[in-house]
Amino acid sequence: MLKDKHIVLGVTGSIAAYKAAELASRLAQEGALVEVIMTRSAQEFVAPLTFQTLTQRPVITEMFQLLSEMNIAHVALAQRADLVLIAPATANTIAKLAHGLADDMLSATVLATRAPVLIAPAMETNMYENPVTQANLASLVARGMMVVEPEVGHLASGRHGKGRMADPAVILAMAKQALGRDGDLAGRRVVVTAGGTQEPLDPVRFVGNRSSGKMGYALALAALERGAQVTLISAPTRLSPPPGAKMEFVTTAAEMRDAVMGSIAGADALIMAAAVADYRPAEVARQKIKKGPQGLTLRLRPNPDILMEVAEYRRSTGKPSVVVGFAAETEDLAANARAKLKAKGLDLIVANDVTSSDSGFDSDTNRALIMDRLGQTSELPLLAKSELAGQVLNHVVELFRNAGFFTSK
Known about the structure:
Elements: E1 6-11, H1 17-29, E2 33-38, H2 48-55, H3 73-80, E3 83-89, H4 91-98, H5 105-112, E4 117-121, H6 125-129, H7 131-142, E5 146-147, E6 151-154, E7 160-164, H8 168-179, E8 189-194, E9 199-200, E10 206-207, H9 214-225, E11 229-234, E12 246-249, H10 253-263, E13 269-272, E14 279-281, E15 300-302, H11 306-317, E16 322-329, H12 333-343, E17 348-353, E18 365-366, E19 368-372, E20 377-379, E21 383-384, H13 385-402
Parallel strand pairs: 1-2, 1-3, 3-4, 4-5, 8-11, 8-13, 11-12, 13-16, 16-17
Antiparallel strand pairs: 6-7, 9-10, 14-15, 17-19, 18-21, 19-20
Helix pairs in contact: 1-2, 1-8, 3-5, 4-7, 9-13
């Protein structure tokens, strides 16, 4: 997504400037053409040579510095930028941008560009929470700029509070979203489920499955990068929430059912990637069940069939427009997937054989069979789950277009 994108990276005078070096490196590794602008204060923390080495491009430090094509730098950069990213952004720089000042190369470039602008503040807690700083940030957001919220943690002042620049990985994810906000899912609301539900047996034990949630989280992130508004309903995982997603955390299948039915009223697509338990213990012990020589017999009762309830809801409301199911199978992959597609009234089903070590639970790759309601089948080779997520969303967009939901571009 970043390949050959022109990204202007503004680095301002914060101790967090050292993190900007990692960010520049990551952007360059993903194929972006990174033009770094450093304020005078930033150069007190990190030398321009650091960024020149990482990006293989000259660093802009002077207001009237000329580029090789003899265009004034801030005008040339502003015109060819696909994204202006300021990380770290100090309170001083934020105030300049809010009031339209253009007294250095960075502020002049922002004022001259029509590209999206993404800001990652970094400062001491009191400065960040000061009403003036908050008003300045609100003003920038109102004008269409995006802000990556700073983190809570140890600050250079020695205090603990909110003001640490967001992790470079988070900023990178938000940069991709900024670049994709006019993508083929722009303005559409997508609900994704992820992870494996856990059905309690007693206060310390549960009946569950081996789902890691990686596929669902990859789908949520991919949808965000294509401009969608994403609600991610997550059963327990060890994964970090995708930046920009609205998160709803659940544990049991019943909680998952309530969250899904409460989220789909205004949704354009539902992607059920979660591994929802089919059964739950009939009784939940109030105290921990003790080990005994007689063994343990469990009586299970069926959980709600969420997709069947969604199908019934769609018949009366027409929403969501597209519903995608997943089928984790151990045998007869195509036949079982086709049966589920029809029984649950799905528009698309993604099936994979979880007995394979490279496409089963907790792997970073997947090999999938995709079937749609029109009878078309795609057999995909082994892909990273992020790549598979893109393929699934391609099918979703195509289903929208077939229904006349999208106008052709």
